[in-house]
Every structure is written in structure tokens, then in C-alpha cells.
Amino acid sequence: MPGINGFTLAAAFGGGLFGAAVGAFPAFILCALSLVIGIVIALVTGDGSFLTLVTWGPFLGPQSAFVGGTAAAAFAARKGLLPSGRNILVPLLSLKSMPVLLVGGVFGLGGNFLAGLLIQIPAEGPVPWINPIALSVVFSGVLIRIIFGRTGLFGRIAGEANRWSSLDKKDSFPWHLPILPLFLISLMVSLIASIVVLLIPGSTGLIFGLSALSVVLLLGGVKIPIFFHMALAGELYAAATGDLWWGVTMGISAGLLGEFFARLFLIHGDTHIDPPALSLTVICAFSFPLLKLGLWRLPGFVALIFIGAAVLLSRFFPRSAKSLTT
Q1: Sign for the pseudo-dihedral over CA of 12, 18, 20, 23
Q2: DSSP designation for 61
Q3: CB neighbours of 46 closer than 8 A, spacing ≥ 6?
Q4: What residues does each domain of the chain span?
Q5: What end-to-end distance do the CA atoms of the chain give, in Å?
């Protein structure tokens, strides 16, 4: 992403307005489309400027557009203009409220400014241990919950639900999966993403972009799981290590963490705190202790040990959780 200057901050304000106008998730889908286009351009020409300026830039990047749309939805719900601040699918221009759009612009600017600061932190190892965009989305989501939410950071549990399960009426996307389907989807997605990135060097992000594009089906009400964080985790680690099984291990871990964070922060809250962004923040942070402990030098099959550790998180997931097909 570009550095911080007057032009990028102005564009970030516009990006936040745009995210509020079209909705946070529709804006993210456009970002995913630009990612696929940018990777193809980079593979053909060797020029990655499209990715820097457009995909992860101040206007369309999640740190601006997605954050702005998320904040605007929370503000609109607080003002009684939207039933739920977790609804980041709806284009808020339909509300015909200038304050809603301006809130999106302000938070878009702030999100981009924060990401610009985070990107200055030196990266160590084959995978940057800080993901500036994901961390910016996470921090902004927490701030939005504190400012506009009424349920507290971890949400408010009601009825017969508990911390690790939810009522259907409270369910948000992704529709929650029991451990076995979640494990299989994570395995499938991360395996494909890892194979592609190893066979096509320089294609990191391609399967992530295609996976993110699939969530356009949510706009039509089609119940699909969200799995782009699994794809990106697999791509990052497979590309960094040259080892398929490191990618698969981290992709599965990303899937389990995403479900864990959805149940911890999202499903009982009244604003959106993004589970995939939380998952990718932690997955990238894993690279630091892995580097310091020298685990990168281990053969890939040893990474399968981490799968077992990740599966232990399944004890947090209720056996009664409904599957995708129910």
C-alpha cells in the first residue's frame, strides 16, 4: 500500500465514503476482483503497481473501504436507521443520511492512517509477522464496537445460547460449522491454494482473491462459508517455505481460528468485528516465534503436528452447531 501523505489520506476518506455508500462487503468484493486482475497483470508484466495503488490502496483497500462501511453500519444502527450494526451487506446510500456516509469517510481515513503506520514496522522472516491491513481492520472493528455498540466487546449472550453457540436468528455469516466440515473445508481450500502458489511462483493472493469473490453469493442470500482467510494463510506459508504442508497446516489453523473468533467477538455483538481479519492477524504473528525458534528449518511433515494442536480448539465448538446444509 502507498505511504501516508495528503493524497492518500484524501483518497482514504473517499474510500470510507465509498464503503459506506455501497456497503462494506460489496466494497470488499470489488477489492477481491481488483486483486485477481492485479495478480494477472503482475504475472504477465512483472509490474505490481496496480496491486499497490488500487487493490491495497487508500480508496479500495479494506483498511479504508471495508472499515468505513463497517463503521457506517454501526453508526446507522445506533441512530435507529438500520436494524443491526452487523449488517455490512446493505448499501447505506439507500438511507439517504449524510452523517452515515461521513462517519464512513472518517473511519476510512483513520483505518488507512493506522495501516500506514503499521507497515513501517520492519518485517522479519519469510512471512511478515504483522499484517498491517488485517490488523487495521481488527483495531478499527474493536474501536467501532466500543464507540457505537451497546453489547460490549465480547457481546451480550441472551436466551438459551452460550458463548460458543448461537441462535439461528443471531447467526452471522459465515454460517457456523461443526468441527469436521470446518476442518475439511479448511483442508481443501488451503491445499488448493498451497499447490497453486507453489506451481505458479508470484501468484500469492490469487486463490485468496477468487475465494473472496465467491462471497458475492451472500448478496443473493446463498448460504456459503467464508474461506478466503484459509486460502491466504495457505498461500503465504507455502510460498514462504516452499513446503506444501506448512501451507496446509496454517490454512487449517486459520479456518479454526476464524470460527473461534466469530463465536468470541461477533455472534453475540451488535457491530461487526471481522473474524477472518482476526484469524489472519494471528496467523501472520505466528511467523515470529516460528522464526525465532528455528522451526522453519523443520521438514514440512513436522508441521502436521500443528494441525493436531489446532484441532484441540474443537473443544470450544459445540457439537450441536448446525451444519451448512441444515
Answers
A1: negative
A2: S
A3: none
A4: 6-153+162-316
A5: 41
